[in-house]
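Before a computer can learn anything about folding, someone has to put a protein's shape into writing. The outcome of that step, for a single protein, is printed below:
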Amino acid sequence: MATVKPQVQTSVSREVAREVLSRGTDCLDDLIVEKAFGIPIFCNDFPPPIPFGPEEIDRARKLHHFLVLIADKNPAGQVLTMQGVDEMCQSKLDDGPLLFYRGCYKHEPFYGKVPIAKFPTWKFVSREVIPDSINKNFLGQTQAIVDYLVDEVYEGQSLPDQYRAAVDEFEANIDRLASLMNTNWQPAAGELAALQVNQLFRLSPGELLYVIALYDRVNHERLLEDTYSWTASRYADGNLVSIGLADSDGASVDGDTPRYSYDNLGTMFSRSGLV
């Protein structure tokens, strides 16, 4: 997933964010991350500022999003990966394992090699998969992300230039990708995953596991208990990675071609600060 370091122009304090969001624990800030995972998060000797203004925080509250600070290092100061999140939690949460089974992906780069963040990153994340993304193939989900961005996140507003460019890229390629997906799914999966809409607004597998673990430790609630969220990361064979059914047996990690759709497969929405 694309991670862009935000240029903070208007920001709020974590105290204000905690007050505005539905629950104080919907602002998973540096203090909460350190308490839950033992990770001190600093940028230039200070916790990174929240790159969102009051209006954005209030809009997130209305959409039932929560705010989370994604760490880039583990407690030992090493680069944090999906495997690192698993190990940091000692492979378990309060009511059971963090992951269900690792055999089919333990050697995949998205699990053991890809950093979950290049630097500490604030993100808004939806608590559930967005409604219109359920039972859609990967292309249909991408359209659902665009519609959600335009109609819900920026309702009645113009999109920022960076997001407008991402939407334009998708719309310029949608017909070609639909055809390619039906005739040659592997290159289609690569192109779909690389679209800026998917890089900007889908969580990576490592980010998703981090969010599931942190949210459970703080709120004692498991996200994605009954659904999967499709990411823009791929297995070595080209299948697109999804994570879900994160009940007390542990979260499942799966992979499917972009043509696949099912009634418990959608995508969570996330976004970081603008550059």
Remarks:
- Residues 3-9 have pLDDT under 50 and may be disordered.
- The beta strands are 27-28, 65-70, 92-93, 96-97, 121-129, 228-234, 240-247, 250-256, 265-266, 268-272.
